[in-house]
Each structure stands twice: as C-alpha cells, then as structure tokens.
Amino acid sequence: NRDLGKLSGSGKNPLEDPQIDALMAACQEVIDGKLDQEFPIDVFQTGSGTSSNMNVNEVIANRAIELAGSDRFDAEKPIHPNDHVNMGQSTNDMFPTAIHVAVAEGIRSQLVPALERFRDSLRRKADEWDQVIKIGRTHLADATPLRLGQEIGGQARQLALSVERAGRALDAVIELPAGGTAVGSGINTHPEFGARVAADLASQTGISFVEAADHFEANSQRDGLVECHGQLRAIASTLFNVSNNIRWLGAGPRCGFYEIKLPDRQPGSSIMPGKVNPVMCESMMQVAARVMGNDGVIAFSGATGGQFQLNIMMPVMGQTTLESISLLTGVTNAFVEFCSDDMEANTEACEAAVEKSLSMCTSLNPLIGYEQAAALAKEAFKTGKTIRELCLEKEILPEDTLAEALDPMRMTEPQA
C-alpha cells in the first residue's frame, strides 16, 4: 500500500511520511517478536481468523502511534487499525495468505533439512553395511538373502522420496489469496495489490509465491492445504514404516532378530533390570500416528468448512498443519541424532540366519527344479539340517557347483 501510494493518497485520513515510517517500524517489531506478549488470542476462534487478524492490526496501529510520538489511547486513532493497517485487505484473504507463507517456510527451512539429514544418515549406513549378508523376510517368513546395506538403502530411498513429497507439499501452498479481500472480488484493494504482495514475499523468503490464479477459489476453499497435508501424511507413513522396521531388526538381544544393534538411550523397564527399549523408534511411530490423525482434521475441515465464499475452519487447519510440520521435523532430527547415526550391524546374527535358512534352496531351482528343491526344504526343516548339509549328504550336485549355487553373496544380485 505504501508503494502503491494508498497510505498517503486521497482517502480518509491519509498518512504523512513520518507516520508511514512509524507504521513500517511497528510491523518490523512484530516480525522481530518484540511484541509477542500482545497476542493472547487462542487459535480456536472465529473460523476466518478475524480475531487474530484484528489483534495484529490493532497492535501494529497502536505501536505505530507510539513511535510517531502520539498517544496510543487517542480516540481519534491517527493511525487506524482498519483504515490504514488493514487497507486493501480482508481477514478472508490475508489470514489464509499468512497460513500459506508460514506452512511453506516451515517445510522449506525445517522439514526438508530434517528429511535430508535422515536420508543421508541411512545412505551412510547402507554404504557401511553393503557387505553384510542377511536373510530377507516376506510375510514375516524367511525369504532369500540380501545385503543389509541393500535393505537400509531401500529405506534411504524412501526418505529421498519423502524429500520430494515435502517439495510437492510446499508447491501446494505457493498460490496466495492476498488481493481477493472479502469474497474474492478484490473490493477496496488496488488491482496490483495481490501480485505485489506475492512478489514481495517471494523476494523476502526465496519461495516462489505467486498471486492466486482465481481469487474466488483461493478465498473460498482450502484445497491447497488439504493437498499439502496429504503429502505430510505420506511422509509420516514412511517414517512410521522405516522406524518400525528398524525397531524389528533391533529386537532382542537374545530372543529376537537383533540384526541391528540400536544405541541404548534409557532404562526400558521399571521392573526388569537391564532391559533396553527402542525408544527413538517408538517416539517416531507415535509422531507419525499423530500426523496421520491430523490429516483427518485437515481433510474434514477442507471438505466441510468451505461454504460459499469462505472456509470457516482456517485457524484449526493452519495450526494443525504447522503442528504436523513441527512434529515431523523434531522427531526426525532426534531420530538421526540419537538412533540412526549410532546404529551398528550385528554381522554374526545376520550371517548365522542366512546359513540355516530354508530359502537357500531357491538358488537351486535352475539346477534341480522347483519340486526337488521344495522337497529338500521340507526335509531340512524336519531333520534340522541345513540345505547345504543335505545336498552334500545326498550328493545332489558337485561340490564346486553347490558352493557357487549356495553362495549367499551371489544371491543378492542378478546373475547372467
């Protein structure tokens, strides 16, 4: 409005340059957090966010009056919260604009770096454990061998895809409703206001904000937030899956898989001495569950809250989305610091499970056929012998051929 000449224009009570400077200075104080104590409004309020918007307008106006050397309690309000601070704006376009900016900034500066950190942590472990052979499991049952590095590498890929999903979550909120004012028509605002706001915010944040393509859609619906949080839900699903699989691989130490040694972080039981629990895995799983629940709030609010020209569930949608970003960021950083970076491979447990697995007979299929290989597996299970021991005992294949066929490392890659 300053750049468009509206504040000093021909409207009611135009401002002088010193007053405009005071108004800008008051805005900066709010940005810097110097006036945080002046914002007591609860998030659960009128569904447009008018309470919070007017709280901001009034704080800025009153502080600007003080900075201009006047009395903030002056009934005439030389700098007015509606006429000046809220000029060319409505809660209905500016509150969702603020939500989009906050969400995009949270994803860009908090969530994406955390996910990239987790991805890189798993990539390092995948490289470190690339020569550790272990047994695969499908349906929780023994399957063919793979390398522990391959398994963790697959999880690293999940995190890489999560980074991409976070990017799509950000893209869903780059259109800004600013400029639509009350119902999307842009009443009482300058024709360039929306584009100027988006360009200025893009310049300040480095995020490619643009003016909404259709202000009637942008004012009335919050589909962008629904789409954005859907990506956060997918990220939460990945984090749950990865942490739960790591938790299972660390189960033990004597009666579980124990293929990964998880770092000890706290005593696990008030009654069982020496017990240690996978606390970081379970922390991440709970956060993921909460974010999945939050997605239900967002979807419900998006579907039912938008009547005609306004969605009246915006405060809870904004708060819930920001909470999900904060939770995902915090638990991911904590998991890397206190778990994934310090995980160790239990090579002995991994290799022992491979040799005694009945699935070793799978590599014999091309040599002796499925039926004979299946019969060997059943006999091995019944007698307690390994596939290798039975094959040697029955002289099914020459020793060198058998050794090559039952080489678990060869089973982890396609063979010509």
Can I get a quick summary?
The chain has 416 residues and is mainly alpha-helical.
Q: What features would you describe in this structure?
A:
With 416 residues, this protein is mainly alpha-helical. It has three domains: 17-87, no CATH class; 92-348, Fumarase C, Chain A, domain 2 (Up-down Bundle), CATH 1.20.200; 357-412, Orthogonal Bundle (Ribonucleotide Reductase Protein R1, domain 1), CATH 1.10.40.30. It contains 15 helices and eight strands. It has helices spanning 17-31, 50-67, 81-85, 91-128, 148-171, 193-205, 215-220, 223-249, 279-305, 314-338, 347-356, 365-368, 370-383, 387-394, 399-405, and strands spanning 133-138, 141-147, 175-176, 210-211, 260-261, 306-307, 310-311, 344-345. The protein has a two-stranded antiparallel ribbon with strand order 1-2. The protein has a two-stranded parallel sheet with strand order 3-4. The termini are far apart.
Strand content: 5-15%
CATH architecture of the largest domain, by name, is Up-down Bundle
The major sheet is characterized as: 2 strands, antiparallel
Spatial strand arrangement across the major sheet: 1-2
* Corresponding CATH superfamily of the largest domain: Fumarase/aspartase (Central domain)
How do the SSEs run, as a string of H and E? Answer: HHHHEEHEHEHHEHEEHEHHHHH
Q: How many domains, in number, for the residues?
A: 3
Quickly give the structural class: mainly alpha
The stretches of 5 or more residues where confidence is low (pLDDT under 50) are none
* Rg measurement, Å: 30 Å
Mean pLDDT: 96
Q: Percent of residues in helical segments? A: 55-70%
Report the oligomer.
single chain
**Cα separation of the termini:** 70 Å
Estimate the global geometry from the Cα principal axes. elongated
- Assign the CATH class of the largest domain: Mainly Alpha
Q: Work out the helix count.
A: 15
Please tally the β strands and state the result.
Answer: 8
